[in-house]
């Protein structure tokens, strides 16, 4: 009897009005959906094709040669507009460099040093404990140089950018060939609204790779994106190694417990 009572109760509770409201809501949704979708489609960035990244997957590890080449692209190209405020030169030892290499990289960098005794803004050579800060003196200067848009800090861009590494690669390689460098409004299907204030930053052969890799636009985009992914998650490789170790340890422990349980209960079965 109990099931039929509850069914009756439910019937009594759901009156006609909520049902009608639901119908109206459905009708409204159907009526407005096409226009909403049409408006979205013009603004929505195109879906970025998935790339095979060394650092993807549960066991992926960063290709450190690519990370180092990516640093060369960042330093030679992107750093004229973007900073990596969360990264210090000393952190770069993590991409497989020796302390003296890092010292040399830092010294080759002109970091903002504030005003001198006469009130003039000064730059000086970098030191290992300096951050790879924005090249501009402040947001106002950054805006003035970039058509009213501040180039974002790239320290965590791969983590926070919707679409992650795939979309950054697609954005960097997504300008139509022959796009001019002038102005502050460039067509790119992977940018929001299919337009960005960033001029096409990469050009074939614009950087020199010490390891002899051909610096094509695609290769530079792949390397600089790998570098930015490493910068966003510099401890990912180590975490994954610890994860594999922990999983193996737990498997070993589980096996040990099975053996132990059999031993303890062996008397009882006899
Ligand atoms: C001439 C200055 C300039 C250079 C050089 C430059 N950028 Fe940008 N970048 C910008 C500006 C300005 C924006 C903001 C664009 C916008 O919001 O419309 C931007 C935005 C970005 C974004 C975010 C895109 C978005 O849709 O919000 C990424 C990622 C990026 N840049 C990566 C790079 C990388 C990697 C390099 C080097 C290969 C580089 N940029 C070189 C000026 C520059």
Automatic annotation (TrEMBL):
The keyword Transcription does not apply. This is Cytochrome c1. Its main location: membrane. Its cofactor is heme c. Residues 1-38 form the signal peptide. PANTHER family: CYTOCHROME C1, CYTOCHROME C1, HEME PROTEIN, MITOCHONDRIAL. GO terms for molecular function: electron transfer activity; heme binding; metal ion binding. InterPro entries: Cyt_c-like_dom, Cyt_c-like_dom_sf, Cyt_c1. Keywords: Heme, Iron, Membrane, Metal-binding, Signal, Transmembrane, Transmembrane helix. Heme c binds at residues 78, 81-82, 198. It comes from the Bacteria. The chain crosses the membrane at residues 242-260. One of its GO terms (cellular component) is membrane. It is found in: Membrane. Binds 1 heme c group covalently per subunit. Residues 65-165 form the Cytochrome c domain.
């Amino acid at each position: 009897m109990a099931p039929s009572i509850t069914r009756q109760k439910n019937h009594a509770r759901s009156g006609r009005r909520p049902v009608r409201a639901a119908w109206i809501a459905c009708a409204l949704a159907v009526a407005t959906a096409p226009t909403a979708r049409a408006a979205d489609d013009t603004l929505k960035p195109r879906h970025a094709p998935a790339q095979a990244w060394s650092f993807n997957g549960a066991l992926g590890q960063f290709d450190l040669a690519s990370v180092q080449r990516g640093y060369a692209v960042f330093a030679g190209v992107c750093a004229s507009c973007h900073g990596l405020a969360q990264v210090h030169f000393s952190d770069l030892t993590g991409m497989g460099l020796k302390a003296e290499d890092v010292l040399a990289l830092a010294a080759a960098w002109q970091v903002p040093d504030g005003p001198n005794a006469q009130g003039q803004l000064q730059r000086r050579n970098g030191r290992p404990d300096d951050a790879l800060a924005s090249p501009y003196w402040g947001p106002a200067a950054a805006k003035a140089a970039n058509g009213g848009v501040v180039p974002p800090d790239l320290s965590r861009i791969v983590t926070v950018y919707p679409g992650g590494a795939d979309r950054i690669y697609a954005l960097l390689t997504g300008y139509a060939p022959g796009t001019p460098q002038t102005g502050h409004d460039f067509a790119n299907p992977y940018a929001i609204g299919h337009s960005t204030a960033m001029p096409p930053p990469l050009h074939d052969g614009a950087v020199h790779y010490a390891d002899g890799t051909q610096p094509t636009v695609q290769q530079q985009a792949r390397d600089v994106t790998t570098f930015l992914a490493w910068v966003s998650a510099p401890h990912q490789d180590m975490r994954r190694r610890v994860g594999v170790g922990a999983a193996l340890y737990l498997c070993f422990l589980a096996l040990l417990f099975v053996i132990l349980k059999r031993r303890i209960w062996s008397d009882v079965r006899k």
